[in-house]
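ENTRY TYPE: protein
CONTENTS: sequence, structure tokens:
***
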Amino acid sequence: MKKINSLQKQDNKSLFFILGMIILVLYYAILFIYPLSLAIIRSFYDWNPLKGSLKFTGVKNYINLFKNPLFLISLKNTIIFTVLAVIGRVLISLLISLGLVSITKGRNFLRSTYFLPVIMPIVAVSIIWIWVYHPQSGLINMFLDMFGLQKQLFLKTPSQALYSVIVMVIWKDVGYSVIIFTAGLLGVPKNLKEAAWIDGANRRKTFFAVTFPSIMPTFTFVLITALISYFQSFVEIFIMTGGGPGTSSYVLSYLIFDQAFKSFNFGYASAISVFLFSLITLITVIQLKVLQGGNKE
């Protein structure tokens, strides 16, 4: 009787495992594989759902990408946005995390404080920062005026709009990386640090010889997730600048929206989407190879 019950339990576990895998595969297929496949296929068409037109054009959409000045501007802005946001977020969060692990009292409170902006909706944060950047009554310009400095236009001028949004996303997202880095730093074996100190290494040498190699998997995770996130940034651009002034803050995600839902050129928008997906995948793979290679050495 016990053997029968044991076999039934094993069969039930196997059944639940199979059902779980089927649900997971269906979820992945419906929400990722199907949309991606459809985007790739329709990128070879002149597709306007409103007119019901679907005409095969081959690689014309991809050729037109690099003939379109707005695409090149968007690509440049996307790279600038991603590089600066990733560097700023990683460096600031790493410095904050190093400070947090050096203290014991109040560490959890400070980590929670840094994490608060992360859980705030991006729409609400974007609206708040529009007020912060307001040319007349904004918080930053009020401080500048107090010290006799010239007020800035921020979101209203082409030379500052994109960088103003970058500052906002770094402020919002840095807390997430702080949590990850702090957990990684607290996991570094103390005996390795003590051995380095005994050998005469100072704090800087200990960090680069012991601490940083130990948190390399954490660093890789933070770097790649930040890169993927910022390459796809859209909501903050849409709310804070609308791609402007002019086209100064156009990024690829906003261009996709513009082509699909304003010009109704879904085939061209699909081609941009496929290009962006391919670019993110390529850079992610290169980063993994470089970081993993450096870690092995």
In short: The chain has a mean pLDDT of 88. Strands lie at 45-48, 53-56. The radius of gyration is 25 Å.
